Amino acid sequence: MANRIIKIDSNQGSFDTTQSKSIVDLDIPANIGNINLSKSYVLVTMEPSAFMTNDKVGSVKNPYIKYNLDNGTDLHISDTASLVRNANFSSRKGRIEDIRHVDILKNTLSVYNKDFAQVQSGQNKLSTLEISQRFPAHQNNEISKVLDIPSRATDHDVHIPLSSIFNSCKSEGFDTSIGSHGQSRIHLEMNFSKLDAAINEGFAAKKIPGTTSAYATSWASQSAPAGGGIDITTCSGLGSAIYANNTDVPYYVGMAVNVTGTNDTTAVDVQKFITKVELTDAGLLTLTFDSKVATTAATKNFSFTSVSPNTTLNATRSVAIKKVQLVAELSDEPAPASLNYTTYSSEEDTYPISSNVNRMYTLPPATKNVYIMFFGDQSNDKGLSVATNLDNYRITIDNKELSPRSIKLKGRQHLDIIASVYANNGDVLKNVRETQLANVASTTTPTNLIGVANTMIAVPIPFKASNTLLQVELNGSGNMSGHHIVYSEVAKQM
């Protein structure tokens, strides 16, 4: 029998981006069968709105949802669990998992968990980063570049896999019978206040792939026929303005554009929107506008200068959170007798800002690995691990040094130890760049692919049934942030 899907609405009926309505409670009823948690997810339906200066009525916008991780920086989120600030999962048997600062934990781990191809791929994220595409933060709406087929504004569904939030939800079986877990609750504190609407960057000065022609000025040699009273409603590309395929075309049906040109000696600068996009077999582009750009004077010509979007956002932009649901997959397979998983206990630590720090921690029994992530400053609102001025460190476990010499941050030994953490989990370290890319800016030139630093310290811990004493010495090239969090990955059974 095929698996079945059920949708469970959140207990809360309204949400906003002011953080006053950011709590999500999802109750899983008792006695609904076995749930495949590994294929279940939280569905957040959003609608971004972004209006531009000198906007054109009737046009279709092409926004994407921006997530302000670090002081407004539009960093790409490859793990949507970063939308969650704090999370709790409990059942009739008690607390299954309780994780603090899910955002910094999961966003930082995703830097190491995903290779470059995985970062670019994926559906139902806030935005899609595809380096092979000219405009990497792809559209939220249904955008058409085919003839006069209209583009359409739609809602945007973001999927947050339960397995990305909770390790216990990597299980294929969760028994909801009253004799087992019964009614359960997922409690999430969301980072809705970090959401914002944005649009793709402009393309006026950029070159069409494979040509020397700029996008917005590829019509410079286009003239209208001589004669008076001719309405100019179309614009055709000539010469070297050749598109290999419609993927390279930055224009779409319904797009608001700024059209400039010269009607004889009179400058023309008007706002229009595109009603038709035509691409010939030879790669020449023709655009049709909703109304005339100009009417030619007698025996005079009209020449186009540019056709480009106005990317200047005005203050009117928002993200509406329409609904939050749990999409759960019911399985006909028998549930396991118990849940075996790891979870993260954490200790957040603040201390005087200094270039040298020595801290002691007691890790709980059955700890497999420990992760240290840095807030970058005294606040805890960054969402990524920024090890400000940290140069090297020493780790001592139960009075035994991990290395006889200090470990250089981002050095070979540092990465080897992180790789051993992944090996300890039976996993593979897929990325050692320790950087997070931006949706737009980081793809402008190859040098910007360096990205933004997102770095942690991770160490495997000898597995035992008693507490572990962890000593951490941090040495900086200058004053460090004075704020980090220590995550202990602990084995559990329920």
Mean pLDDT: 85
Helical fraction: under 10%
Question: How many helices does DSSP assign?
Answer: 4
Distance from N terminus to C terminus (CA atoms, Å) equals 28 Å
Number of domains: 2
Instruction: Tell me the fraction of residues in β-strands, as a range.
Output: 35-45%
For the secondary structure, the number of strands is 29
Contiguous uncertain segments of 5+ residues: 441-447
Reported for the largest beta sheet, the result is: 5 strands, antiparallel
Using only C-alpha atoms, the radius of gyration works out to 27 Å
Decide which structural class fits the backbone.
mainly beta
Shape: globular
Sheet with the most strands: spatial strand order: 12-15-14-13-17
Q: Quaternary arrangement of the chains shown?
A: single chain
